[in-house]
């Protein structure tokens, strides 16, 4: 029995030694196919991937929410990159994602960024694929857009006369693309001309304000007359007693 146990123990020691030797060998000399896989894996540019995602979000929501054409979406992408290239605090600095998600006084530079997370998460599909393709073109310098100075855009169909008036008096129109109009910042001479101009939207907004004042004045006069009539009727009742 003792002989059997000694043989069993010897076998166990030999087995453990073999396993240890195999492990040590594997630790220092991995198989060639594993080494090839490890060293052939391409490196990733996470900054570029992040920029691509952020600019695609701006295209997807800012362009897609109004059924914007690919041409209009390309120009929206150009506005994003030009604001980042300007690297000024009023637009969020020089990082594309900081520009896309910039918020000041609870107002988002790009309106979709103020939506709840669930509503500003793309769901994939053809529209998202288009946004990613356009973003890739813009970041890769392959966009068909030639304008380099556009910084603002407006969809006149859904913009109030008040905001449209501000755009017309502050920025220089450059072109129309899809459903949006795109603008650049003016020179000092152009700024003076713009401030003295009277665009149609400003005239409509001014007329709407005047009408609102007239309606409010008429309502106030009506209330005043009603109060006077009630006071007169009250005095007549007391006089009759």
Kindly describe this structure.
This protein is mainly alpha-helical and 241 residues long. A hairpin with a 2-residue loop joins β1 (103-104) and β2. The strands form two sheets. Strands 3-5-4 form a three-stranded antiparallel β-sheet. A two-stranded antiparallel ribbon has the order 1-2. The longest helix has 41 residues, at 200-240. The protein contains nine helices and five strands; from the N terminus they run αααααββαβαββαα. The protein is elongated, with a radius of gyration of 35 Å. The model is unreliable at 8-13 and 15-28 (pLDDT under 50). It folds into two domains: 44-145, no CATH class; 147-235, no CATH class.
Spatial gap, N to C terminus: 134 Å
Q: Biggest sheet, open or closed, and with what strands and sense?
A: 3 strands, antiparallel
Overall radius of gyration: 35 Å
Give the number of helices.
Answer: 9
Whole-number average pLDDT?
Answer: 83
The fraction of residues assigned to DSSP E strands is 5-15%
The arrangement of helices and strands along the chain is HHHHHEEHEHEEHH
Number of E strands: 5
Uncertain regions spanning at least 5 consecutive residues? 8-13, 15-28
| Neighbour order of strands in the largest sheet | 3-5-4
What spatial form do the alpha-carbon principal axes imply?
elongated
Kindly give the count of domains: 2
Task: Assign the structural class, choosing from mainly alpha, mainly beta, alpha/beta, alpha+beta, or little secondary structure.
Answer: mainly alpha
Instruction: Report the helical percentage.
Output: 55-70%
């Amino acid at each position: 029995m003792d002989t059997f146990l000694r043989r069993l123990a010897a076998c166990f020691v030999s087995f453990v030694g073999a396993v240890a030797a195999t492990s040590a060998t594997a630790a220092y000399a991995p198989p060639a196919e594993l080494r090839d896989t490890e060293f052939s894996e391409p490196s990733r540019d996470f900054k570029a991937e992040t920029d691509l995602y952020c600019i695609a979000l701006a295209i997807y929501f800012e362009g897609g929410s109004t059924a914007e054409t690919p041409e209009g979406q390309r120009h929206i992408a150009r506005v994003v990159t030009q604001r980042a290239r300007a690297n000024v605090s009023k637009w969020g600095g020089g990082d594309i994602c900081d520009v896309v998600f910039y918020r000041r006084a609870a107002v988002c530079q790009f309106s979709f960024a103020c939506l709840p997370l669930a509503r500003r998460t793309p769901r994939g599909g053809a529209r998202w694929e288009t946004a990613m393709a356009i973003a890739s073109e813009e970041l890769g310098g392959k966009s068909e857009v030639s304008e380099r100075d556009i910084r603002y855009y407006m969809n006149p169909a859904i913009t109030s006369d008040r905001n449209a008036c501000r755009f017309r008096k502050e920025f220089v129109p450059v072109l129309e693309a899809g459903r949006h109009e795109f603008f650049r910042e003016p020179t000092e001479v152009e700024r003076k001309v713009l401030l003295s101009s009277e665009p149609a939207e400003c005239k409509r907004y001014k007329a709407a304000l005047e009408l609102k004042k007239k309606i409010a004045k008429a309502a106030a006069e009506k209330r005043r007359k009603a109060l006077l009539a009630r006071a007169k009727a009250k005095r007549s009742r007391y006089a009759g007693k």
